[in-house]
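Entry 12.
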Amino acid sequence: MYNVDNMTEQVARKKTPLKPKETAEDTAAKKKSSKWLLIIGIASVVLTVLMCVAIIVYKDEVKELANYGYLGAFFISILGGATVIVPVPMLAIVFALGGVMPMPWLVAISAALGETVGALTIYFTGRGAGHALSNTSHGWLQRWYDKLMNLMQRRGAITLFIVTSIINPFFYPAAFAAGALKFGFKKYIPIVLAGKLIKSFTVVYAGFLGIKFIFHWFGIDI
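Predicted 3D structure (tokens):
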């Protein structure tokens, strides 16, 4: 008689696809990719530190970027979008430009583009440093990292969009987490740009309409 158990085992084997074995070339490619991610992460950290130093050393020149109109809005927003340790008068300058420039919508677009460029350094820092953090021993840094990763894994796109669209201190960790989780670069850019456009238009047209008191009501100094 035909063995039923043998028949079941054969069917199961047919349905279960065999995983291709990892070749030496695949392993080498993964190591090379990890190496480049680490290099990019370190370069992003160095670039961020240099920008922070430049902001401190040339703080008067940074404030004078307001004199350059749309171009000034773009460059001050790159600095504001990339740094979190050193305060940059980005919101104040963009707000003021919204009230004096003839095309406030162009100020908003310039600022949003600048912040998006700055946000790339955060993303690539996460891509490089995230690989290193995922392999560290368990401690307070690892616990914080794990919680952040869990949140981004569950609600990555919507979390990133929300923290990008409003004035808050949580964009940096969210963008860092996006990079560490290898959140698609082609997805990251449009989400961040869309959120930055919403935030920039809000700030610029608040300046255009002269409603500074609304920001003060929310405890935001501009």
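Annotation: The chain has ten helices and no strands. Residues 35-217 form one domain.
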